[in-house]
Design goal:
The complex is a heterodimer of chains A (about 325) and B (about 350). By secondary structure, chain A is an alpha/beta fold. Chain A contains ten helices and 14 strands. Chain A is about 30% helix and about 30% strand. In chain A, the strands form three sheets. Chain A has a seven-stranded parallel β-sheet, sandwiched between helices. The radius of gyration of chain A is 20 Å and the shape is globular. With about 350 residues, chain B is mainly β. Classes of the chains: A alpha/beta (about 325), B mainly beta (about 350).
Chain lengths: ~325, ~350
């Protein structure tokens, strides 16, 4: 009686960045590229979405704290309501793009895709794309929103590269890399980018390979100009599963609000399968992945992106979990 | 598990079936029980009328934008619908036919909740964070209320028509219809109220919340009961209009694939006791008591409508929407039950009417 076909899950792209950085230009590129597909767009500020598009829905950002202000239980009520409404139609859509305001904290948006039962069942968050105005970001550098939007990103567009010198651009990229070791960074003009680099990223898919920028790993000492930064741990050796559990549990409990995102591949003693995990604040998703291949070097790679991270302490605590 | 097919006296049989082009968003009976209105996610609005094989009147063709909510006024003179295009459209009964008399434009708001007062022709509808009340007698907006903390997530009237209740983030706000400018009474909810229901005697108000709790307030008692332990967010609440031994209506709640029924105990110290009605295998979309009875109907995305005698025992299972039901409505007289499906199915069952309308 229950129909066998599982309703297909709709991929979601989250666009963040300051007003004027080029989000709307990028959105219009996505809509042009996805010509013939049904793309629904939820916007929180009415910019000039240049394309006459039926499925543009305006929503005011509504932050719902669900559990005494617990940061990982904070979701976006407007998205729950609108995605719920949109998902009812049989002839659904192929792609959902959410454009946030320049002042939005990305975390509640991301958490909505993991916390709300309907949103989780019917959509999957593909990636967080942050557009940075290469010229004007310097004015916003101290703003928490600007730092968080970069820290949560899977893809960063350094846009308006024509307005700054190559040296300024290198400096900007270095700073952003220091904050977020996982994001793909692209230098763009007019938000021009191959759509393959933007859509179908699967950034929250545990099956995707963990890619830490080699440049980040090669730098021996990271200058942390900002309170927001990345810590990458790459080590060989086998981990004690129980100790690891205890460490990660305590870490999330104590520092969850300051850990924006984390990802990793781990070697657990006595297990033939890789252990993969990711997290957003205190939301943690981890499981045994494919078996290590014969001849494959077993390793541990972890990346933490967050605020006021103590790199030495993280390394020490990690090493204490080694067998 | 629903293998038993023996038909008993007093069971409901399929009476009529029709289709819309997409997910049936809302379905409602006129107060005299003779007309059913339904709307779809593609934007259609239809009326189904007549005995036996019903005749279908299309009030609005599909335009790709959903019509989320619809309701008849208490005197049956008006039908109002609201949806994605921000319009609230009002039809009025004129010489036996519904004529479109008013369109309230509210672009770019998405009107997904509306409710007529049970005593006067006042229509409340959601406009983002605001709720507007339209007075059919004057043909104008009587008031605009600001919920403030979020969009209006549910709207309902007190049975006496004197209070308008709106649920949303951090609580339920209750405005007085005699003085709209008076500050609303606030029932505080730690998360967000997504489904609200007054008991038919007006004594209790229940709020189903996003954090998997239900808050029940006895009016003028400052201490609400809070019920916990649900498998998901609370989607719907329904009160019976007949009372149990304790002289209290029965409350049914739906959450994920579970129904929990609450009954207040005769012994005050015991409070409310619950029982789980198990059987559905997918999200329950709607629960509603048959008027003047404790027979509970539930419609689920699993493709079944279940009837629960005394809100306890499953006595009948109805089907007809293989990819899932979306909504249901009892005829006010209780002789018929109508349900909508996720693929546009419209179904009507009636009690012990044999050999009619199966063609």
């Amino acid at each position: 009686m229950v129909t066998a076909d599982i309703p297909s899950s709709v991929p979601v792209t989250l666009l963040t960045g300051y007003l004027g950085a080029g989000k709307t230009t990028l959105l219009n590129r996505i809509l042009t590229h996805e010509h013939g597909k049904k793309v629904a767009v939820i916007v929180n500020e009415f910019g000039d979405v240049g394309i006459d598009h039926q499925l543009i829905i305006n929503a005011d950002e509504e932050i719902f704290e669900m559990n005494n202000g617990c940061i990982c239980c904070t979701v976006r009520g407007d998205l729950i309501r609108i995605i719920g409404n949109l998902m009812k139609r049989r002839d659904k859509f192929d792609h959902l793009v959410i454009e946030t305001t320049g002042l939005a904290d990305p975390a509640p948006v991301i958490q909505t895709f993991f916390m709300d039962e309907d949103v989780q069942a019917q959509t999957n968050l593909d990636s967080v794309v942050t557009v940075v105005d290469a010229k004007h970001i310097w004015q916003h550098w101290e703003a928490e929103e600007a730092q968080e939007q970069i820290a949560f990103a899977d893809v960063v567009l350094l846009n308006k590269t024509d307005l700054v010198t190559p040296e300024e651009l290198d400096e900007l990229e270095r700073r952003i890399r220091g904050m977020n070791a996982l994001a793909k960074i692209y230098r763009t003009r007019n938000a021009e980018l191959e759509m393959d680099a933007l859509l179908g990223i699967g950034a929250f898919d545990l099956n995707r390979a963990l890619e830490i920028d080699p440049e980040f790993l090669n730098e021996t000492a990271h200058q942390h100009d900002e309170t927001v930064g990345s810590v990458a741990i790459v080590e060989s050796g086998e981990l004690d599963g129980n100790k690891l559990n205890e460490w990660l549990g305590q870490l999330l409990q104590n520092q969850g609000p300051d850990i924006f995102r984390m990802k990793g591949i781990l070697t657990i003693a006595g297990e033939d399968q890789r252990f993969v995990f990711q997290g957003v604040h205190m939301l943690f998703d981890g499981r045994a992945d494919r078996p290590w291949k014969p001849g494959e070097t077993r390793k541990n790679e972890l990346v933490f992106i967050g605020r006021n991270l103590n790199e030495a302490q993280l390394r020490e605590d990690f090493r204490a979990c080694l067998v | 598990m629903f293998g038993l097919k023996t038909k008993k006296q007093g069971e409901f049989g399929r009476h009529w079936q029709g289709t819309l082009s997409d997910y049936v968003m809302a379905i409602a009976y006129s107060p005299d029980g003779k007309t059913i209105a339904a709307s779809s996610a593609a934007g259609e609005v239809v009326l189904c009328q007549g005995a036996g094989a019903l005749s279908v009147t299309v009030l609005q063709e599909s335009d790709g934008r959903s019509v989320d909510c619809l309701a008849f006024s208490q005197d049956g003179q008006f039908l109002a619908v609201g949806g994605q295009n921000g319009q609230v459209k009002i039809w009025q009964l004129q010489s036996g036919a519904f004529e479109l008399v008013r369109i309230l434009e509210n672009t770019p708001a998405w009107v997904d909740r509306l409710a007529w007062s049970p005593t006067q022709n006042l229509l409340a509808f959601s406009l983002g964070k605001y709720v507007q009340v339209w007075d059919a007698a004057l043909g104008e907006i009587a008031t605009t209320l600001n919920f403030e903390t979020s969009s209006a997530l549910d709207i309902t009237w007190h049975p006496d028509g004197k209070r308008l209740t709106v649920g949303g983030y951090q609580g339920v706000k209750i405005w007085t219809a005699d003085d709209w400018d008076d500050d609303p009474y606030l029932l505080t909810i730690p998360s967000a109220s997504v489904a609200i229901a007054w008991s038919p005697d007006g004594k209790y108000i229940a709020s189903g919340n996003l954090d998997r709790t239900i808050t029940v307030l006895e009016w003028e008692n400052p201490h609400p009961w809070v019920m916990r332990g649900f498998p998901g967010k609370i989607r719907q609440l329904a009160w019976s209009d007949v009372f149990n031994k304790a002289g209290t209506p029965i409350l049914a709640s739906s959450s994920a694939e579970g129904i929990v029924v609450w009954e207040k105990q005769e012994d005050e110290t015991l409070g409310w006791e619950s029982r789980v009605l198990a059987g559905h295998e997918a999200t329950i979309q709607s629960v509603q008591f048959q008027p003047n009875s404790c027979l509970l109907a539930s419609a689920s995305a699993d493709g079944w409508v279940c009837l629960w005698q005394k809100a306890k025992r499953q006595t009948q299972v109805l089907n007809g929407a293989p990819s899932g039901f979306s909504c249901l409505s009892w005829q006010p007289q209780g002789h018929q039950l109508a349900a909508g499906g996720q693929n546009g199915e419209l179904l009507i069952w009636s009690k012990s009417v044999r050999g009619q309308g199966f063609g």
